[in-house]
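Retro notes
What went well: the complex prediction finally ran end to end.
Inputs used:
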Amino acid sequence: MDVSDLRKGVKIKMDGAPHVVTHFDFMKPGKGQAVYRCKLKNMLTGNQFDKSWRSGDKMEKADLRSSVLIYSYKEDDQYIFMHPETYDQTYISEQVMGNQKHFLIDDAECEVLYFEDAPIEVALPNFVVKEITYTEPGARGDTATNVTKPAQIDTGYEVQVPLFINEGDLIKIDTRTGDYAERVKK
Amino acid sequence: MSKSSLLRLKKKNFKVRSDLLRSLRAFFYDQDFIEIDTPVALKTPALEDYIDAIPAGFKWLRTSPELHMKRLLVAGHEKIFQLGSCFREGEFGARHREEFTMLEWYEAGGDYLSILEQTKGLLRKISSDLDLRKAYFEAKWQVLTVNEAFEKYAGLPAEEAIAKGEFEETLCFKVEPHLGKDVPTILIDYPASLAALSKKKKDDSNLAERWELYVDGLEIANAYSELTDPDEQLKRFRETAKLRSQENREVYEIDQDFMEALLEGMPESGGIAVGIDRLCMAMLQVEDISEVVFD
């Protein structure tokens, strides 16, 4: 692709890794050549950096695709997902799962992003319901939501919850931030 | 947000834009300039190194009215101005649109310095008529040579940046953000290799009689003592054609009507192009061109 096709959000391949353009500026001084100034984010490492190109420069589009898979089970440090129609299995490492591994629930529909056929990112449903496995008891009748305490879910992940949440309660967690969203009635 | 509601947000800015055009026309009429309209669809666009034209059927949309206005100077029209749309392919960003509004004026007998005095007068009148940024434009304008600016803000001479092929990056990233901060800045004495269609300096042929105006780091205007020598002009067109051809970019035909006019004899003149959308941005102190154009 040509540098003039760059825009915010476009994904390109550089040094063997996919990068997303997070900021884009077209500059052209006086009678001079156009300069395309971008901020890039390496989609594998998260590293951000500045990069500029001149008009006429060429680059490679990142070969990315995504598909919706169903989470099945965990085996050693691999998470196994299944395609809902072909039943093909995909193994995703703990490293690629990142923090999302804490919020996996059985049969969750996840969007898996592939770069050149290797999974690089897993997006869970925005909210998942998890059970509190441990927390100190809160004061009975205290319904304040602005005071929080730590609580654990089955995966060992620690989340800040309001004081009225008790062990055994079900809560909704926002998987994008990892934060408590609300209590769920059983 | 719907397109109509986006346009509704621009009500105040469009009024300022209209007041600016009224003030600007009054300035030129008061000084006995006449307003000119030259063709927008051209047989061939101006041949410049890095300005690309948008095709329109068998013609091209103009990238600037410069060559046609110079033909009017040859024909004896001494004080002329024009306001209108120009088009440059692929230019799009917070400070660029492919279609934009340009003001150009030319004065026979003038040069880049007489144009500078007129520019000060024009911008001071506009800011006073609009009652916007009066102190800023009334202040003494800063004049920096290209070399001084490069030394001061990038720590290297402009010629060195050109030799390294980093002139544009250095200017955009390191120099421009400092220009026009507290008062308007005139960047002057461009290296001759960046003369474009300007005359070389009488006492130093390494420099061109060209300046640019900056407000808040934004390039607003580009002025020349106009090149009048037909041989030198033809030489520069041919160099540009060669560069464009080497880079596999469209090589426009040389405008023969313009070359004929130069051979007849063009009077010594000063001329300038001002980006009107950007001038509105500067008056309103907004950072994105979308706030002052229809879009």
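What we learned: The domain at 127-184 of chain A is CATH 2.40.50.140 (OB fold (Dihydrolipoamide Acetyltransferase, E2P)).
What to try next: split runs per interface for comparison.
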